């Protein structure tokens, strides 16, 4: 692949996936600086390894895989800032300052905190990134079947955690009205 | 509200709220900054593997790593389909048969049945565990016919056959017996039978570039991650040809810490195999 082709391919992939990678980073980073760093580092790696970047939809999954490792390294305190990305950081700050669509009580946060990092990430990939088990498998580097089973278990554990942190709600919702009236 | 929706509502932002962000000043500036950086070059590296352990992979690895990645523009055009099943579609393309694999975990027996249908009676298939990131479908090709050739393609074979995952081709007049070693994604924790680049996503050194760093630095990075180190020396070919010959299982005592790392590989077994370029003046052992 010559230089011009690589640039065109990278730019097309960058424009096509940027919102999703930014979203991935923002949903997982508590500060705009971290989110901007993760986005920048993910694409730096993608550029350096453009020859390995799969085409089409698989490319987006590959990028999620890279972003996941970058994030894990950040959490371990390792940072490699190959770019300045000052404007991106400023934009992320504005986005973080916007009102969040988050709703619900603190019990949900508590339930999420009861989950292991792996369970949380599985649910996040499924619900936030809207990936199916085959796509999750590609991001995590496991088989489709393993992803399906792990996702199923993570869902069960999340349901249990929710019951634990807000015991009254699910039972109230589940009880048919007719029973209540007949007593 | 179901639990997925409850989880979803905790997202700081959803992708749909970021529509249009890919062309902001920040996105433009980052893109401009990145493409000014140097890319990793991937020199054609001919694999010559003298060890019996790798001997069976030898010929095919040569094919895959030298010519195999070259995508011929006409590959997916002007060819005629001669066989199709759920797992594989076969085209006859001039002097070649082209195989489009449409099953992520193909049954060797079914592929062999397909080969028989087009007259390739002596070709067998063996599945071996490889990194889930491994993109070349064929990681080994054992053959008795010296003129037979094989190549993989990494281009989007889905343009030719819907649902195609990988494709490869073999010269149609191949004689004698031959065996393809096709990669299947290793199960979690399973050792790879073919090495993967350790810096690939999901691998032990994901995103970490050791290429070009000194052995001393690289070893420190590897050990910090509680991984062990093994060494291979990549000796230039004596005839000055393009490629290297690997000397495997080299003890640390023969490695100068100032030598440079060429690549880092993993078999997913807690060991990082550092390929080292011997420094100027280093004497190759007999046979190299």
Automatic annotation (TrEMBL), chain A:
GO MF, one annotated term: sigma factor activity
Alphabetized Pfam families for the sequence: Sigma70_r2 (PF04542), Sigma70_r4_2 (PF08281)
Domain (RNA polymerase sigma factor 70 region 4 type): residue spans on this chain: 106-157
Protein name per Swiss-Prot or TrEMBL: RNA polymerase sigma-70 factor (ECF subfamily)
Keyword Membrane included in the entry's annotation: no
Source species, domain of life: Bacteria
Keywords attached to this entry: DNA-binding, Sigma factor, Transcription, Transcription regulation
Automatic annotation (TrEMBL), chain B:
Organism of derivation: Nonomuraea dietziae
Alphabetical UniProt keywords: Membrane, Transmembrane, Transmembrane helix
Organism phylogeny: Bacteria, Bacillati, Actinomycetota, Actinomycetes, Streptosporangiales
Transmembrane segments: 55-76
Protein name: Uncharacterized protein
